[in-house]
Task: structure prediction
Amino acid sequence: MQAVVIHEHGDEEKLELSEMPVPEIADDEVLVEVKAVALNHLDIWVRKGWPGLKLSFPHILGSDVAGVIARVSKLVKNVKEGDKVLLAPGWGCGHCQECLAGLDNYCVHYKILGESVQGGYARYVKAPAENAFAIPEGLDFTQAAAIPLVFLTAWHMVVDQARVQPGETALVLAAGSGVGSAAIQIAKLYGAEVIATASTEAKLNKAKELGADHTINYQTEDFLQKVREITANRGVDVVIEHVGKATWEKSIKALVKGGRLVTCGATTGYDPVTDLRYVFFKGLKIFGNFMGRKAGLKQTLQFFPEKLKPVVDIALPLKEAKQAHQRLENRQQFGKVVLLP
Result:
């Protein structure tokens, strides 16, 4: 089968179109013919590598897959050949305490498509059958591929961790990112007033289309000062953060007493300064967030496409994976960059 692979870590030039064997599936797995696969920053990090990451080369990236069930094994009952599905991007061992409690993303053996196992930049990909979910009616493959990882993550951040309530104010940083564009919609779904930040007016306009009540151009304005103006110096109840070092200190200062900050990334740096006086004096709660529960994705899907919408920036042929990585790495996108095998 045709696939885009890396043979070693490095820049986007390490991405190569190649021939790979069709995956062999185990008794509880399905083989999916990939119709669309969306990019995440995880793809870039895996491509570049990090200390302790061990891959079997050649490696196929890609966590967000939508396609058609091409083959099922003998133990599979939840889907059949020909079903149109999207794949939950991660899974645990299934038998540890965390998995049995429904917290599969806390499993120490957690696997992610395109990271610890071969991913979806290919004609076919295999996954546990329980990770295959029916694509909501009214969505095409490109739209469906824009859902799994970012909505799974954003749902866990907004609903399970921050527990956003009607009437609260939520600050969503980097509205043009996949997590940001999803978090805006989920926070609005739960009745919050949303303030969104982005780097261009075009991105801010799109954030408004998704439901943001207020927008801030962080390139031309101090987002902390603007938050204080918008909230009459009160601050926000919740911050959805994954930018990291560049925004961390101001994110902490933007919170009200008892406010909650949830972070799922550190794109601009992992070692920000945290003034603990703000944390203990204001009684702040800081949550780390890694992916999300598989059950959370199932909950999320029931709201598509009426109340939640996938956000697609651009769809490109699989052979243009290098250009897709450049677009994401240069922060040119709003929403998801999708590859079409």
About this structure: The domain at 2-147+310-340 is CATH 3.90.180.10 (Quinone Oxidoreductase; Chain A, domain 1). The first strand starts at residue 2 and ends at 6.
